[in-house]
Design a protein that fits this description.
It is a single chain. Helices cover 67% and strands 0% of the residues. By secondary structure, it is mainly alpha-helical. The radius of gyration is 19 Å and the shape is elongated.
Length: 208
């Protein structure tokens, strides 16, 4: 079973529309609650009270709070980082520039990722699940970057793995700076800087 899938016995059949809607609402509400109060400060009982459910109803969808955290992180990456650009025919430089210009809209996603990283330091279950989800997402993005390199959008001498790690580290790093309430550049300046960095990956460079 994939991380974040609903818990059900083999005889229960596929989830109903109501069950899917309840699960989606749980994921969204839990993600918002974890961002507002901190993952460690929120219990399943707290979440149940917030949603006017029983703890048992939540455990009917998720094995643990860690499952719920990872599902919430996956949902926010898809809804905040990927969905706004789905179907748009942008080149890599334009795509990442557009994302940089709207970086403020992803503050909640980054805050949730910071909560997940902090929890992973002390909770082996969170660490294992988040590492697996993170590896799967990077593998998905890596296949896209490899295809772009094959099409010539990324220079042949660029290490795609290192490039991807850099792009993702920038997004995560902004979340850390936001947690510190650091001053960050205006979106236009951030986008301009990202464009210049990304353009360098389209040009062959000198060996280090």
């Amino acid at each position: 079973m994939a991380i974040g899938e609903p818990v059900a016995d083999d005889s229960s059949g596929p989830p109903t529309e109501k069950a899917r809607a309840t699960r989606a609402a749980l994921i969204r509400s839990a993600g918002e609650f974890f961002v507002d109060e901190g993952y460690g400060a929120v219990s399943v009982r707290d979440l149940a009270r917030r949603m006017q459910l029983t703890s048992g109803a939540i455990y009917g969808h998720f094995r643990s709070k860690a499952d719920l955290l990872v599902a919430a992180i996956r949902e926010r990456i898809e809804s905040d980082l990927e969905a706004p650009y789905a179907g748009r025919s942008l080149g890599l430089v334009d795509h990442l520039t557009a994302q940089a210009r709207t970086y403020r809209a992803r503050a909640g996603m980054r805050a949730l990722l910071v909560e997940g990283a902090a929890a992973a330091r002390v909770d082996p279950d969170v660490r294992r699940q988040l590492r697996e989800a993170h590896s799967a997402k990077l593998a998905e993005w890596r296949s896209i970057y490899n295809a772009l390199q094959a099409d010539g959008e990324i220079a042949a001498d660029v290490d795609v793995d290192a490039m991807l790690d850099l792009v993702w580290a920038v997004e995560l790093g902004v979340g850390v700076l936001e947690a510190l309430d650091a001053d960050l550049p205006k979106p236009g300046r951030w986008a301009q800087t990202m464009r210049r960095v990304m353009q360098s990956f389209a040009e062959p460079g000198e060996a280090a």
